[in-house]
Amino acid sequence: MRVLGFDPGLSITGYGCVTGDIVRPSIVEAGVFRLTKRGEPLASIGDRLVELEEDVQGLVERVKPDLIAIEGMFAHKDHPGTVVKMAHARGVILLVARRAGVEVCELKPAEVKKAATGSGRATKEQMQLSVQEMFGLPELPKPADLADALAIASCALRRYQFESMTR
Predict the structure, then answer these.
(1) Are strands 2-7 and 12-20 parallel, antiparallel or unpaired?
(2) Cα dihedral sign for 16, 7, 44, 61?
(3) Annotated catalytic residue: which of 7, 51, 55, 148?
(4) Active site residue 163
(5) Can you give the residue range of the structural domain that contains 19?
(6) Tens-place pLDDT, residues 88-146
(7) CA–CA gap between residue 166 and residue 116 (Å, rounded)
(8) Catalytic site residue 145?
(9) This prediction's pTM
């Protein structure tokens, strides 16, 4: 089973495709999409969404996931505008998944943090350290969006495999 996880954003969208089992997942491909109009530092939201769609479409065609996992919506009291920006990026990813006929799993940030670190309130640094250990990486996965996407994918993989075992 291949799970493609996304940490959606309008500046940076992290992605990670994992396979394997509950004990030791392995990375198929991981990275980030830096969303700017090619060659220009500031692009309109529309330009970034078009670029994100092209990037996600190419990625889905390349890694052929069985499941796409995406971070669920959340609002932070100190950054209320983030939820709107995140919603735009999520919409593009959900659209690409739907067009490709790939099932989608939405995970709450606290669920992913708890699965990765044991605490639903883990910091970005704790998530990066946990993902580094989980996949046996020689270096800390950077940026944090990359680590989060890998954690989202591995959490969805575990959930899917656990549910399959209990049926």
Answers:
(1) antiparallel
(2) positive
(3) 7
(4) no
(5) 2-165
(6) 999 999 999 999 999 999 999 999 999 999 999 999 999 999 999 999 999 999 999 99
(7) 21
(8) yes
(9) 0.92
Task: Please tell me the total count of domains within the chain.
Answer: 1
pLDDT greater than 70 at residue 37: no
Q: Give the start-end residues of each E strand in the chain.
A: 2-7, 12-20, 25-34, 67-71, 103-107
Q: Which has more pLDDT, 58 or 72?
A: 58
And the tokens for 51? 């670029």
CATH of the domain at 37: 3.30.420.10
Residue 7: active-site member: yes
Residues across the chain: 167
Active-site annotation holder among 47, 51, 78, 145: 145
DSSP state of 64: -
51, 55, 71, 148: the catalytic one is: 71
What is the arithmetic mean of pLDDT over 11-39? Answer: 88
Write out the two tokens for 101. Answer: 């006929």
